Amino acid sequence: MADIGIIGAGSWGIALSVLLSNNGHNVKVWSIIEDEIKMLELNHEHKDKLPGVILSDRITFTSSLKEAVEGKDLLVMAVPSPFVRSTSAMLKDIVADGQIIVNVAKGIEESTLMTLSQIIEEEVPKATVAVLSGPSHAEEVGRGIPTTIVVGAKEQKTAEYIQNIFMSEVFRVYISPDVLGIELGAALKNVVALAAGIADGLGYGDNTKAALITRGIAEIARLGMKMGGKFETFCGLSGIGDLIVTCASMHSRNRRAGILIGQGKTMDEAMKEVKMVVEGVYSAKAALRLAKKYDVQIPIIEQVNQVLFENKPASEAMKDLMTRDKKIENADIPWES
After folding, report:
1. Is 189 a catalytic site residue?
2. Under a CB-based contact definition with an 8 Å cutoff, are residues 28 and 5 in contact?
């Protein structure tokens, strides 16, 4: 049994608190919003973010970050990606030497092009930082629907420790040393999911969705490998696995926002209607800058940026993708003659 602090009371933080509590661990959930903590203490349910998922009386809540952190065997960083740096800065003087922080948010910081684990390491150098990612909607994890994810850490013993804490009969955990690849797959798939949603909003079909998923993972892998990620990672749970579920499910806030944009709403209007942080919007510009830095072609992500930030009509973006110069699908496969 471990003492665990969940930093962030959004849908993912709440879902993981349910999972970890069911695994027999002591769980304390922190939120910077005092009214949110009062609501959770009163109802033991997050009616806005995860309605219908009732929290055990064993899960406790606090608005004191110090109380959520001190003495904990493990911290779960579950705040949205735009708030990872500011939250990490608040943790700097509270975290103990070697205390493990598992980041479960997905994104790339636009201003620095850093992954979220790199941000945490920079702000909280005393911590041991790991990541958890994969095809795992909070709405399903909170209800105990079978889910499989991957934990990335620099040291195998750290990954195995986290694996043992999270593993259950409904939550299967693999481990990997490719922290960078896991984070890049997790962040970039959100941008492709926006494209998949836009295609749905335009009224396109399964053929279009399959094309975006297939060519999307090719873009993610091209860029990710150029940056140092491993090909096998992009073929795995945090690559193609997470991309499939995010492009196909209505639980996906990125797909839902994309649908609204495809139907003619602006980016701001779509984000307001979704009522949650749409991570792909925050990662899109960063992905484009990374592609230019590493000289990698990412046409789908490029068109998403133009739709989001340059008011390009979604139908025109799709036409431009379809009429690009002719290509070989895989240039590494030789012709017989």
Report:
1. yes
2. yes
Query: Whose CA is closest to 187, among 125, 119, 121, 91?
Result: 119
Phi, psi values for residue 150, rounded to 5°: -130, 140
What tens digit of pLDDT does each residue of 259-289 get?
999 999 988 888 888 877 788 888 899 999 9
Residue 156 has pLDDT above 90, yes or no: yes
Catalytic residue, candidates 72, 106, 189, 285: 189
Report the residue count for the chain. Answer: 337
Give the tens place of pLDDT for each residue, 4-36.
999 999 999 999 999 999 999 999 999 999 999
Among candidate residues 218, 220, 223, 210, the one with its CA nearest the CA of residue 189: 220
By the 8 A CB rule, do 147 and 135 touch?
yes
Token pair for 95: 């975290």
Instruction: Name the H helices within the chain.
Output: 11-22, 34-43, 65-69, 84-91, 116-123, 138-141, 156-166, 179-201, 206-227, 231-234, 242-248, 253-262, 267-274, 279-294, 299-309, 314-322
Instruction: Please check whether residue 29 is in contact with residue 76, taking contact to mean a CB–CB distance below 8 angstroms.
Output: no
Q: What is the pTM of this model?
A: 0.93
